[in-house]
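User: Teach me something about this protein's shape.
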Amino acid sequence: MAVDHDRDSVSVPTELMKIETRHVPGALKLSQEMGWPYRQEDWEFAVTVGNGLVLERAGQVIGTAMSWNYGQAYATAGMIIVTGSAQGGGNGSRLFDGLLQATDGRSVLLNSTEEGLALYKRRGFTAWGTVVQHQGPLTVAVTQSARDDIRQATVSDLAAIQAFDERATGMPRPSMVAGLADAGNVSVIERAGRIAGYAIARRFGRGYVVGPVAAESAQDARLLILAQLATLHGQFVRIDVYAEHGLGDWLESLGLARVGDVIAMVKGLRPVSDGTARMYALANQSFG
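Assistant: First, the predicted structure itself:
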């Protein structure tokens, strides 16, 4: 998140409005200013499956804030940016407060850099965990396990994958999961005729992202990640994992260096996973 600093702002009126596909080129320019690796296609996907606000000044996008609603109880937030020349005039607060209002009382989850913590804490968010970003060119030769319980997903698996995702996240995300599955390659673990985990790899940013990865154990999560990495040799790969599951050293052994981390926060009630299902890797830091 770009944080407001004390500086003079140009006295040109700004307008807060819902984000539309016509705003994508301006939003892309903002994320490039921040050094974020989003492509235009990544912004288009985010806008298609989510909701958001933009600040416009003289026809130019100067700020964005996105959210994704999961049922009536939960939402995630992210892609919150204010251009450097517009910081210091309360634009970040205006955007974020508008976004919170648009979530209609849902509990809101987000991932914050150190710079954004103060703003979010003032809005009632509390920290509950850490998300670690690993990435790099995949130069280590990775082979998929020969186990016969890991396979490519088919269209007929979608409903079971969506149900497993809800168990792992504690949130109903059928539209998001369907969109991610349509955009990427999906592997599943099937045991005794049921889906016991899944992983998606798709084009994103500088190369590919592996996530979401949901499973019933860290070992199963590693097997699903390996199934995806086996097809990505030589590609730039990113994966964002929860620190609590201890996958970091293993990912580094595969050549995916730890390049940063963010603080997982929630305003309201944190969703609760069902049984042993857990989310190990995120689709990205905004979607959850």
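Now, about its shape. DSSP finds eight helices and 13 strands in the chain. The longest helix spans residues 91-102. If you'd like, I can walk through any region in more detail.
User: That's plenty for now, thanks!
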